[in-house]
Amino acid sequence: MNILQGEGTRCLLARPNLLLMLHLGMVHVLSFGGWQDASLKLLWVVALGVFLLWQPFVASDNRLRPVHAAFLWLGVTLSTVFLGPWLLLIWCGVLAAAIGGRVLWTASSSERAGYLFAFGYLIVVTVLGALPEISTGVDTAPLSRDVIARGMPMLLPILLFFPARQTSERRAGAFDLFYGLLVFLVLAVFVLGALAYMLIGQVAYLDALIKTSWVLAVALLLVAWAWNPRAGFAGIGASLSRALLTVGMPLEDWLAQLGEESERARDPEAFVAGAMKRLFDNPWVAGVSWQTQGPEHVLGPQLVHVCRYRTEGLMLSLSFRHLPTEPIRWHAEWLLRLVAEFFQVKRQAQALQRLGYLQAVYETGARVTHDVKNLLQSLQALCYAASQPGDPAQITAMLGRQLPLIAERLTNTLDKLQSPAGADRTALPMDVWWHSAQHRHAHVSMTWCPAEVSGAMVPAALFDTVLDNLIHNALAKRQREPVLQIEVRLEDGVLTVADDGSMIPVAQAERLFAGPVASADGLGIGLCQSFSLAQEFGYRLSLVDNRPGRVSFSLSAS
Fold it and tell me: Using N-to-C axis directions, what is the helix angle for 66-81 and 42-54, rounded to 10°?
């Protein structure tokens, strides 16, 4: 069955302050002598029912199992039979803790004021109602208990003027257990301290209440200051948080151990094995187990109390020697989570290393492929020139000049496969390289502008690669524009290749060197590779002019 049912119940749940007012009124009646009347004891049963409607711990629509209903009935019956001032005093403390724990959860200041009013009313009922019922020696003079018993209930309707909202779902977050326990303990210290001071100091009860309240207020102020001070000291709150976060093993020590293990073991699986072995050395750990890609590894016995943590490609388990508390379990889960995070970082580093190797292979293969394409285009041009009518002696001489150069370039290309780590940094005098380039491309119809070249050294591999790529791009453009004129110039160490054809589209020109571009004549990666190679040598490849009738590229020192 449901704990609470009916339309009237829903109306009461919508007005929690009314429920609290009714409950406080019944407790008031019982505390001021009503517990001695057998007929008024039935108010205790009603008060408990009203409390079940108001309480912030369990949702009202939960179903009670028969066992729980039996225990509830037994508790209500026994408390009603043995109802007395001591039970009422303890109940006032529990109710004060419930109200105090809900004050911290409440966001609205006006709603919080209503709960504080109820809390103050309950304190008065406790010290002037329930406590004097315990002993006849507790005298409230000069205050009259009869006047207080009849007059105080008139203040309860004030509680209805404070707003209060019903929580849609009662849960643990609606009540601060730590704050509630603190309120209960403070109230217990206040009541027992007042009684002790009255008996030992032989003073009146009201004087003992006033002096005890002052001492307790000063003590709470000191605790509040020490909890979160302003003079540079971290405070009790920080110390308590630190203690809760370092149960069993300080996190900083565990991080240091994980760092040492990470430096020692490069392989992720070896790191996890070493970290779990270090965790197994702690006295509160009975056994550990872990599993990555292969079989599960186990150290020590696997007991009933186990904390597990799973993530992608990893399963960690830790067995406790004794039943762990929630802070211990939470702390152990964080230790395992740190192991998993280090493991994932190592896996990512390993994956990045593989990607770096694959990228080196790709870049080397792409450069070699592009060089082979240029060589094939050069052989194709030679074959075309050899097939044309002319003097066989001249054709033979041309082939005799070009084939050794092509063979040398092919040898250099194959050498790149043997040592892909870096480019050939052989340097040649500028004039030697210039004449060699003219000789190598003598069969191509283009203009070599006369220039004064010095004997300064230039990287031959870079200049050869860039020049071959730019010339072949221009020749491919000439196939679309037959009258295209190509011009090559070398001045002051700046190599320029230009043509008088159509301009490159602006959108394509903006990303010409950023990556591969769509090309109908090749792979579309030649300029990107030439640009990267130029940066590696400390040079800069750029598009100098891009307009109709003038498209030029230049290679210059950065």
Answer: 140
Apex CA 234: angle with CA 228 and CA 239, to 5°?
90
Residues 111 and 117: their CA atoms lie apart, in Å, by: 10
Q: Calculate mean pLDDT across residues 356-375.
A: 65
Flag the least confident range among 237-246, 247-256, 338-347, 450-459.
237-246
Q: In DSSP terms, which residues pair with 316 in a beta bridge? A: 290, 309
3-state DSSP assignment of residue 521: coil
Domain parsing of the chain, residue ranges: 7-233, 244-350, 426-558
What is the per-residue burial (b if ≥16 Cβ within 10 Å, else e) of 400-420? eebeeebeebeeebeebeeee
Q: Domain 426-558 belongs to what architecture?
A: 2-Layer Sandwich (3.30)
Considering the chain, what is the average pLDDT of its residues?
77
The pLDDT > 90 percentage for the chain reads 2
Measure CA 97 to chain center.
36
Specify the pTM.
0.46
Whole-number pLDDT of residue 384 = 67
The token pair that represents 511 in the structure block: 């990303």
Identity (one letter) of the amino acid at 136?
T
CATH code of domain 244-350: 3.30.450.40
